[in-house]
Amino acid sequence: MGASHLEQTNALFRKNLVIQRRSCKTNCCLISFPLLLCSVIGGLQIAINHASSSQGEGGAIPATHLDCSCSNVSVDENAMGGIECPYQYEYECPLPRAPKQPPFLKIPNPKYRAVQDGLFPYTDLPDASCRVNGSCAATFLVTGDNHSFVEGVIDNIFTAHSSSVNLSADVSALSDFVLADYGGSFLQNKCFPNLTLSYPVQHGNRTVSQDVQCTEGLVLWRDSSRLINDELYGGYYQGNNNHKTDAIAAAYDFLSSDQGKFNLIISYNSTNYGFYDESEQSVPALNNQERPVQKANSDQVPRLANMASNAYLHLKGNGLNMSFEFVKDMPRAAIPAAHNDRQNKLRIMMKMHGLGDLPYWTISYCYFLLLSLLYVLSFMLFGSALGLTFFRQNNYGVQFVFFFAYMNLQISFAFLMTTYFSSVRTATVTGYLYIFVSGLLSQFIFRSYVEDANLSRSWITLMELLPAFSLYRIVYEFSRFERLGNYMAFLGIQWTDMTNPENGLAGVLTIMVLEWFVFLLLTFYLDHFHSFKDGMKKAAVFVRSRINGNHVETAQQQNIQLQEFRASVELERTDVIKEREIVEQISEESRRSYSVICDNLEKVYRGKDGNADKIAVRGISISMSRGQCFGVLGPNGAGKTTLINMLTGFCKPTSGTAYIEGMDIRFDMDRIYTGIGVCPQDDLLWENLTGREHLLFYGRLKKLKGAALAEAIEQSLRSMHLLAGGVPDKLVGKYSGGMKRRLSVAISLIGDPKVVYMDEPSSGLDPASRKNLWKAVKSAKQDRTIILTTHSMEEADVLCDRIGIIANGSLQCIGSSKELKDRYGGSCVLTVTTPAGEEEEEIERLVQSISPAANRVYRVSGTQKFEMPKQGMKISVVFGAMEQAKSSLHILAWGLADTTLEDVFVRVAKQSDMSTVT
Question: What does pLDDT average to over the chain?
Fold first, then answer.
């Protein structure tokens, strides 16, 4: 008998309370959010009211205020021309509508540009004297397979102008100029004195003219891309790893380009080192924040590609040009967020240890209800304290009733939606889309319907069935009466207004209450049956089984299973047939003498899109007694996991059934869960709980309390060697992988479960911990049944009283380790080592004289292995013959070994594959 619903609820509540206490900071932030939001709304309302009163009294709007586009800068709105901000400050805020701006090319700062300073061996670089007056050219490197073609292209990369240019009248011509230094200069093949470029720039709400000077662009040929890479690398480090600079602006490798094809590799720099100088910027830094150089980074590659493409088109002489006038930022938000967890698997883990659905949903519902209550009360309290008339003017009791009904409706609606999602991320995205879309629909569609007096109120009621529209109707009515209260004698919504049919509040409240209960009922139904179809099918099977007897199958089903059994008998081995007969002979009264009975279990996954059905488990029948450890072995994909999933209720069998302590897995899984323990393959643990707190929680689910609970926890920790070094009171997040594995095994054994499932319990453990685990499992199996899956033949040999090997979904053999070795091994292995040469043949003749049926299976450098059938062989004869042969042959070593379980496993798996192919 497992713990009652009240005891389960108490265990889950205490566990969640510990987790929430350790998440104190997060919870405080959640609860304080209404204060922040109300403060912002209240501040805006005070500012609007103050502005309105100032204008009504003939006052003027204050001259200074803070603007997002001019962060921390006081501006004068009364000045001629309106607001003007330094260009860079627009990057301090989110950009819902980013302004257009020309693309910029990054080039090195003049004092870091490549010159003949000994670092580079090339004589075509500018003289180092140009750094004195800042006239050094920006260097671009090029290479390619076709030298003449590349020279023709690079002659057209930069435009040539001999006089100043003003583009205020024709801004589209800006694409002909290569702007650099974040708009501080433009590149040409040759710069003339006083050569400038004027172009319009948008600053906030104003457009001003920007004047920039000319910078010479120097394009130099290199014989190979390897030389370019060496020069770029040398220019990047300047021979000093502590001062990174960028001497080369960019590099082009035109590969095999010619007039008919255009291939290009661009080398550019994505860092900011050496591209600007603190002392040479016209705009000072603000609050020690980095300048907005990331915009230039994003323009760098497309601008370099555009330069080369236009030069190629100009060389072809077809008159085409690729305009690149402006770029824009994507609209960006201020605060991104992401969230994910493993709640679904943890809930399944808790359910398998006895946590019922009612306690789980009760605690979850109460948690979200409490959180919602704190939110609503915080909004009402803070909103009223900050003077928000929305809260002050409407009756507080009416507000609380409506908000309380809505938050219960929203919680039940959210619970209903969780049954359709398996991914937290997908559910989160869908939730945000629901809020956003429903808000837009409410404002632009639903409101117009509410205010349309000619529209039938029945349509409004129908739309209010969507919870989002119900909330909007409540807010709309509260706000409408609040607005009317400014000019009329109304004081917002009062209790007497509930009977007024014009506001529709009584209908909204009725809809919310009814939907609240309907959504909860649907949630419980889908959570239990997964779908409406499965629920109806299970109900029909349950009714039919009750009519025909207590879980007894109909005669038709029995005939089908009998036919399947007769068809499969010919393919089964003797031990499997015998096990099936034992299961069939177990009567209804004697089921309880066996702990676990698998009765012709089968699982078929139906094929989709024309694919054939996949039979994962084929009519497996097994009986397991108490005090026994049963090992399930098999290759990957054999059906082991599917079998365990059916026994633990993860999936339903297609046909057949199983009985756990006399209870049917098709109908009694809730009762079965109270008496089983599970160690899953993955460690499903809470990172912010300690090992002791995990055992406390699962122990309470097993109805342990007081001294018995404390003793069981100490025993579990001691058996898994988790008591030393304060390990029980450390957070699981600080555990090693082996410690987590041992804790998972301890959880599966606490509370004296009658059946324990262990899925590869020793994976990831060191040899010493594995030995200790084996001791604990041996001790634990004395009064319970343990079903163990493993890939370690040594582990199965040590722990398992009986072993079943599954391959291709079928039970291939069953028995103890010794029985399987005798039945499917049938031979011993004799190993003899001699010097390589003629004596090897003498050894083979000797073995043949001992056992004529012996077969040599291995021969390398004097070492030979022979398989000798056990039938008719005497070990004393083998020993005597080998000792006698030592006197005449140079036998360096010899040994006789029995068949291992691994040999049996490999042989059975191969035979199964061969029979499947046949």
Answer: 76
Q: How far apart are CA 803 and CA 904, in angstroms?
A: 11
C-alpha–C-alpha distance, residues 561 and 565, integer Å: 6
Amino acid at 140: F
User: If we measure between CA atoms, which residue out of 796, 780, 800 comes closest to residue 719?
Assistant: 780
State how beta strands 250-253 and 138-143 pair.
Answer: parallel
Residue 53 tokens, joined: 């009163």
Q: Which one, of 412, 586, 369, lies nearest residue 512 by Cα?
A: 412
Query: Do residues 731 and 693 lie in contact, with contact meaning Cβ atoms separated by under 8 Å?
Result: no
Instruction: Look at the alpha carbons of 381, 385, 390, 391 in this order and tell me if their dihedral is positive or negative.
Output: positive
Spell out the SS3 assignment of 27-38. HHHHHHHHHHHH
- CA angle, 423 as apex, 417 and 427 as ends, to 5°? 45
Number of Cβ within 10 Å of residue 760's Cβ equals: 16
Contact 467, 413 (CB under 8 A): yes
Reported confidence tier of residue 188, pLDDT bands at 50, 70, 90: confident
Torsion sign, CA atoms 343, 349, 354, 356: positive
Let me know: does 451 contact 479? Beta carbons within 8 Å: no
DSSP letters, 217-261, are: EEEEE-S-HHHHHHHHHHHHHTT-TTS------EEEE-TT--SS-
Joined tokens for residue 767: 């040899």
Q: Which of 142, 181, 160 is nearest to 274 (CA)?
A: 181
Nearest C-alpha neighbor of 208 from the set 217, 218, 216, 198: 198
User: What distance in Å separates the CA atoms of residue 37 and residue 57, rounded to the nearest whole number?
Assistant: 30
- Nearest CA to 564 among 656, 665, 659? 656
The three-state secondary structure class of 562 is helix
Find the radius of gyration of the CA atoms of the chain. Answer: 41
Q: What is the mean pLDDT of residues 115-139?
A: 83
Please state, in angstroms and rounded to a whole number, the distance separating the CA atoms of residues 19 and 450. Answer: 45
Among residues 363, 355, 357, 362, the alpha carbon closest in space to that of 701 is found at: 355
Pairing status of strand 663-664 against strand 676-679: unpaired
Q: In 266-276, which positions are buried (b, 16+ CB within 10 angstroms) versus exposed (e)? A: ebbbeebebbb
Nearest to 621 by CA among 563, 578, 590, 675: 578
- Whole-model pTM: value is 0.57
Residues 6 or more apart in contact with residue 663 via CB below 8 angstroms? 671, 672
Residues forming a β-bridge with 624: 596
Tokens, residue 135 = 């006239």
Cα–Cα distance measured from residue 437 to residue 422, given in angstroms and rounded to the nearest whole number: 22
User: Could you tell me whether strands 655-660 and 663-664 are parallel, antiparallel, or unpaired per DSSP bridges?
Assistant: antiparallel
Q: What is the pLDDT of residue 844?
A: 84
The count of other CB atoms within 10 Å of the CB of residue 107 is 27
pLDDT in tens, 285-335: 323 333 333 344 556 788 888 888 888 888 887 777 777 767 766 654 433
Q: What is the dihedral of CA 565, 568, 574, 578, to 10 degrees?
A: -10
Q: Is 86 exposed, middle or buried (0-12, 13-18, 19+ CB in 10 A)?
A: middle
Cα gap 761→682, rounded to integer Å? 10
Owner of token pair 């499917």? 824
Q: What are phi and psi of 453, to 5 degrees?
A: -70, -20
Query: Residue 405 burial (CB < 10 Å; 0-12/13-18/19+)?
Result: buried
Whole-number Å distance between alpha carbons of 425 and 631 = 38
Sign of the CA dihedral with 138 first, then 144, 149, and 151 last: positive
Domains of the chain by start residue, with CATH: 110-278+292-316 (no CATH), 591-819 (3.40.50.300), 827-898 (3.30.70.1150)
